[in-house]
Amino acid sequence: MANIRCVWEMGGALGHLASLKPFVDQARAHGHQVTLALKELQNAHLVFPDPTLPRFQSPYLNRLPRLSYRPPLLHPGAG
After folding, report:
1. 14-20: long-range contacts (C-beta < 8 A, 24 or more apart)?
2. pLDDT score at 41
3. pLDDT single digits (tens) 35-53
4. For the whole prediction, is pTM greater than 0.90?
5. Long-range interactions of 15-18: CB distance < 8 A, separation 24+
């Protein structure tokens, strides 16, 4: 059977996460291994209460990257 990773980047609201539930339930019912990678884990158990369903927090960037950087400081004798 397949190993399926479901990745969800939205926040902790359950409406978007709940849209994955039918797919996850069907895949598991057919013997597939499903792993959840979620932006927020604190409410995931409300949609997916089964503690045997692997889940982990996916990495995400919570701020915009810098567009400019200050030049490095040089030692006074360097040069």
Report:
1. 14/43, 14/46, 14/47, 17/43, 17/44, 17/47, 18/47, 20/47
2. 87
3. 999 888 888 899 999 999 9
4. no
5. 17/43, 17/44, 17/47, 18/47
